[in-house]
């Protein structure tokens, strides 16, 4: 299992986490969560949420992406406003097997 709460604006910054070694930033609204210890298999359930930041008026959405399959070592996530990728100040992701 894993969980993370991080700031996805600018340089990503982890607030708190479990079984997460780092975050890779691929650009606006595109991050990979890297696990400290690989999960037993890729059949885990992952969920997440994002927040709006001060001054934003459009709701944010959250997507899990991993080339149609989950990985045992990392999980890629996207955050968007309704029309484009966008960073979020609070991103929460959890995964359980």
The number of strands is 8
Strand order of the largest sheet: 2-1-8-5
What is the succession of H and E elements?
Answer: EEEEEEEE
Class from secondary-structure proportions: mainly beta
Q: If helices are DSSP runs of H or I spanning 4 or more residues, what is the number of helices?
A: 0
Shape: globular
| Weakly predicted, low-confidence segments | none
How would you sum up this structure, described in words?
This protein is mainly β and 97 residues long. 0% of the residues lie in helices and 52% in strands. The chain contains no helices and 8 strands. It has strands at residues 2-7, 13-18, 20-27, 30-35, 45-50, 61-65, 74-80, 91-96. The strands form 2 sheets. The protein has a 4-stranded antiparallel beta sheet with strand order 2-1-8-5, with no helix packed on it. It has a 4-stranded antiparallel beta sheet with strand order 3-4-7-6, with no helix packed on it. Strand 3 (20-27) and strand 4 (30-35) form a beta hairpin.
Draw up the topology in text:
Blueprint (H helix, E strand, L loop, with lengths): L1 E6 L5 E6 L1 E8 L2 E6 L9 E6 L10 E5 L8 E7 L10 E6 L1
Antiparallel strand pairs: 1-2, 1-8, 3-4, 4-7, 5-8, 6-7
